[in-house]
Amino acid sequence: MFVTLLSFKSILLVLIRYILGGKIVRRLAFLQQLKYSVATVRFSGNP
Q1: DSSP reduced 3-state for 1
Q2: Given this model, what pLDDT does residue 31 score?
Q3: Using CA atoms, how far apart are residues 2 and 20, in angstroms rounded to an integer?
Q4: What does the alpha-carbon distance between residue 41 and residue 34 come to, in Å, rounded to a whole number?
Q5: What angle do CA 10, 11, 13 make, to 5 degrees?
Q6: Distance between CA atoms of 14 and 37, rounded to whole angstroms?
Q7: Measuring CA to CA, which of 5, 12, 21, 46 is 20 to 30 A from 38?
Q8: CA-to-CA distance for 23 and 16, rounded, in angstroms?
Q9: Of the candidates 17, 38, 16, which has an alpha carbon nearest to the alpha carbon of residue 46?
Q10: H/E element holding 8?
């Protein structure tokens, strides 16, 4: 029982880490896209 509980806890930790990692990656990609769009707007605004 203790072993199954331990493995369940480790699986849960991996899942949480995976979900958090996905969110962080998505946020980074969004920030990168935002920076790119701001740069393009600035570039087109100043010839």
Answers
A1: coil
A2: 92
A3: 27
A4: 11
A5: 65
A6: 34
A7: 21
A8: 11
A9: 38
A10: helix 2-45
Residue pLDDT, tens place only, 10-40: 999 999 999 888 898 899 999 999 998 888 8
Structure tokens at 18: 């995976």
Structure-token pair, residue 38: 């701001």
CA pair distance 39, 24, nearest whole angstrom: 22
Q: Cα(29)–Cα(46) distance, rounded to whole angstroms?
A: 26
The continuous run of DSSP H or E covering 26 comes out as helix 2-45
Residue with tokens 């769009």: 37
CB atoms within 10 A of CB 34: 10
Q: What per-residue confidence (pLDDT) applies to 30?
A: 92
